[in-house]
Amino acid sequence: MGKIYTIGFTQKKAKEFFSLINHEDIKTLIDVRLNNVSQLSGFAKRDDLKFFLEKLCGVDYEHAPELAPTKDLLNAYKKKEISWEAYEDRFLNLMSQRCIEKTLSSALMDSGCLLCSEHKPHFCHRRLVVEYLNDNSELNLQVKHLF
């Protein structure tokens, strides 16, 4: 049984974001965004984030695009062409097609923290990744959402 965390960076200032990371036993921040160089928040761009995590928190950074939705799927949900329920179903099917339970390192996931942009996990694929892994692998991850 491992512990895993999730966090979103929107609605957080850098101080709050890195304080949340620092107060937990996180080894690696696993970026599950499709686009990790977005303009949404300066501190959350790939290179800046990697630097700040290392210097401020002693945490490694890993980009895992295989845990992100496809651009088409994400756009369909954002444009309200599909419901959350349809998005959720298609995303979980995508994780199954990608066989993430077989390709992800259990060491990476243990004390890892999944990062996405959504403030809360309720309508975010980072929550779905953990649920999928718990249903389809022997990882038995205990999740703590940081927000």
From TrEMBL:
PANTHER family: BLR5642 PROTEIN (PTHR39337). InterPro entries: DUF488 (IPR007438). It holds the Pfam family DUF488. It comes from Endozoicomonas elysicola. This is DUF488 domain-containing protein.
